[in-house]
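Translate sequence into structure tokens.
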Amino acid sequence: MCPRAAHAPCGCVQVLAERQQMIELDGRRNMNREALGALRRIERQGAEVAAASKHWICLGDVFVKRPHAATRAMLEEDQRRLDAEVGALHESVKQKTSVLCELDPSMCGASRP
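Result follows.
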């Protein structure tokens, strides 16, 4: 066994923690996608209807009523940020999993020589 293999348990925990974080962020991303879809349905009713409407949004533990355009802009920005975070976590998990596979090929289904 290689001396670096002692770090494998710590690496496994990090990978599992990052995968859990990805799942949580993906759930938020899906909620944003649903909210953006609802806003698009309102926009299909007409520009005047969309411009006149205000929406309740939750910011932490506070609810705020915001205009349609501001709500959409905020959700789109949040969606871009979530996409970037999930992408970065995905790359990190791939890299850490690759390192773990180098340390112990049996973890990735490869047979040992």
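Note: The domain at 3-103 is CATH 1.10.287.370 (Helix Hairpins).
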